[in-house]
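4.2 Preliminary Data

To establish feasibility before requesting continued support, the project team ran the inverse folding procedure on a target of 358 residues. The structure was first converted into the token representation described in Section 3, and no sequence information of any kind was made available to the design step. The complete token record follows.
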């Protein structure tokens, strides 16, 4: 593990490390290349960074796990290779982007090309105070432990798995080309994009979340949201045993299903452009269905929720999907992880660091 302190902004790293993802040009504007630091294998790094840093992690491939602790340091444990560059609060202050500009992407599937349109996502301002920064680059199985009050997380994986565990009340951005993204006990504002593979969020509470995929399922289990927009092309959206604070929610799948299970609280649900008749099991809730749509008021109403599945089916239900066998049978190609995780509340699986003998 090697690192060095940044001294100035002379070489933007976006054109070297993230040249295939223009969206990250803004995200890494505060990072520079001051040389070619050597990557140390199977090593550890401990970086004094302050209690509320900006942390930017780029992994070529492997497994990336983000954890939190009550220390003003970033710890890196890797079984692959990693190197880091640290930045002062003055350097970070002028280079953290105010918004993400996401380019259009297209991937080939069995149904032909699936397009993920260009989009802009506005980031909330950083919390008051000083924010130092660190950029970490590498590959392999890596655990990065960050201060609990980390202000901003940028995570990028070309191919592999990204897990964020216990990060709360900050801002996070995660981008995976192919693999999976897992959010466990996460809260705050976030943008998540995965081109090929699933997003799985459990026991989380989102102030504002934008999640999108070209080819993959978007799975939310026991989550709460104030504002959420989840869209996928060739995949399905599952919001199981979830709830909403007063706000707006939108769920859409181009060729898959949308299954919404309200566990507690109220919501006003509108279904538009469903490829098949809407199925609902809400007990005494007021549900009005048509050939390709529905309206439902649950728990006296509340958040405004819209669902759309022009190439699939929209299913509305109360609580957990496993409590409705008939609905389970109606959703074809139900992912195994949905059957496994939608049965009960489970604590997230802990991933222990992998170390090598001396």
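Position-by-position output of the design step:
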């Amino acid at each position: 593990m090697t690192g060095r302190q940044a001294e100035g902004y002379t070489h933007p790293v976006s054109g070297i490390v993230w040249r295939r993802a223009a969206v990250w040009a803004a995200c890494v504007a505060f990072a520079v290349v001051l040389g070619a630091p050597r990557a140390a294998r199977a090593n550890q790094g401990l970086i004094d960074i302050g209690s509320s840093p900006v942390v930017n992690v780029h992994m070529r491939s492997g497994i990336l796990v983000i954890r939190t602790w009550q220390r003003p340091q970033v710890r890196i444990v890797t079984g692959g290779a990693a190197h880091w560059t640290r930045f002062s609060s003055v350097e970070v202050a002028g280079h953290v982007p105010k918004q993400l500009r996401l380019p259009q992407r297209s991937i080939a599937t069995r149904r032909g090309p699936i397009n993920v349109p260009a989009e802009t996502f506005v980031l909330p301002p950083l919390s008051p105070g000083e924010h130092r920064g660190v950029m970490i680059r590498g590959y392999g199985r890596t655990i990065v432990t960050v201060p609990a009050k980390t202000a901003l997380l940028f995570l990028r994986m070309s191919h592999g798995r990204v897990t964020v565990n216990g990060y709360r009340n900050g801002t996070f951005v995660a981008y995976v080309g192919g693999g999976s993204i897992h959010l466990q006990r996460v809260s705050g504002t976030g943008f998540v994009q995965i081109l090929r593979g699933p997003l799985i969020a459990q026991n989380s509470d989102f102030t504002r979340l934008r999640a999108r995929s070209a080819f993959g399922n978007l799975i939310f289990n026991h989550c709460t949201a104030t504002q959420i927009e989840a869209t996928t092309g060739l995949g399905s959206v599952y919001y199981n045993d979830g709830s909403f604070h007063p706000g707006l929610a939108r769920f859409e799948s181009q060729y898959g299903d949308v299954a919404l299970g309200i566990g507690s609280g109220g919501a006003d649900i509108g279904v538009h452009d469903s490829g098949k008749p809407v199925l609902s099991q809400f007990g005494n809730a007021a549900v009005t269905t048509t050939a390709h749509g529905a309206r439902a008021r649950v728990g006296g109403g509340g958040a405004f929720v819209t669902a759309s599945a022009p190439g699939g089916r929209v299913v509305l239900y109360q609580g957990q999907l496993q409590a409705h066998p008939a609905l389970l049978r109606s959703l074809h190609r139900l992912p195994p992880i949905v059957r496994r995780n939608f049965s009960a509340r489970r604590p997230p699986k802990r991933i222990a660091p992998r170390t090598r003998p001396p």
